[in-house]
């Protein structure tokens, strides 16, 4: 599969349609705003980003990109959605975040900038592309030897279907209906296999849980039954 083919334009169009509301903390992207501090802290704790070259693959409207830039990272954000990137550029003018945005696939970026980045992030993207393994391999090529890479996605099991689709999209209305396709969810064993195939070492796997009563998210070791995140290293 070529870099240009590893794009699901139906998925892109979902986020294009919502782009103007990307930075509305009470709108459709509220969950992203709520989990962003947890993930940014986790990344910065394990791979301090200050004065490091960071790439955010599938950056969307730039929520994570800006957070890492404000922690001192030299951040590049790439995405294939033109509208989210336009929103990211506009918000950068407002916030003053020092982020470089580009319209690119992970595979294209890897061809142009092999072994350039100290930290590679690819969060909430793998379940939206036809070939996740290709994206992981491209992220590995973007990373310098010794770099840390972060991936997050959603497990594929009945509980994840109940929580991430029925609960989040239909009952609690945390996400727009149709945001996720259950068949594209990724089991931890599958993700681990693709990570190893890309020549990366898996250092940590941590769950992201949501309490509907307190309406709070937290990172939780040992519970990767729904949303989860992995930390990997390029030898």
From TrEMBL:
Its EC number is 2.1.1.222, 2.1.1.64. Keywords: Methyltransferase, S-adenosyl-L-methionine, Transferase, Ubiquinone, Ubiquinone biosynthesis. InterPro entries: SAM-dependent_MTases_sf, UbiG_MeTrfase. The keyword Zinc does not apply. S-adenosyl-L-methionine binds at residues 39, 58, 79, 123. Coiled coil: none annotated. O-methyltransferase that catalyzes the 2 O-methylation steps in the ubiquinone biosynthetic pathway. This is Ubiquinone biosynthesis O-methyltransferase. It comes from Aequoribacter fuscus. The lineage of its organism: Bacteria, Pseudomonadati, Pseudomonadota, Gammaproteobacteria, Cellvibrionales.
